[in-house]
Design goal:
With 95 residues, the protein is mostly helical. The protein contains 6 helices and no strands.
Length: 95
């Protein structure tokens, strides 16, 4: 699946059954379902879950919590826009 195809799925009522949990969390966020995305990110765990969790707290405006989760993911808070970070995350997990 390409990034453009993934974006197109945001028009659907449910996420595609073929995507992994990381993409499912980002799909939920892309649909404006922050709470559901956050709940799923917590369940993913590991570096990937921490990275998505960090992004979600950055989106929420809780930069202190976001920085904690970025450090758990081995990353630092990016200077990019939230939209750009979401796109980068989706592209990373589509690989």
């Amino acid at each position: 699946m390409t990034f453009e195809e993934f974006q197109t799925t945001l028009q659907l009522n449910t996420p595609p059954g073929t995507i992994n949990e990381e993409l499912r969390a980002l799909w939920l966020d892309g649909k404006g379902e922050w709470d559901a995305a956050h709940d799923l990110a917590q369940k993913i765990g590991g570096v990937n879950g921490a990275w998505i969790h960090a992004y979600l707290h950055r989106e929420e405006g809780d930069n202190g919590n976001a920085n904690y989760w970025y450090s758990k993911a081995g990353k630092s808070m990016p200077d990019s826009s939230l939209k750009e970070e979401w796109e980068n995350l989706v592209k990373e997990f589509l690989k």
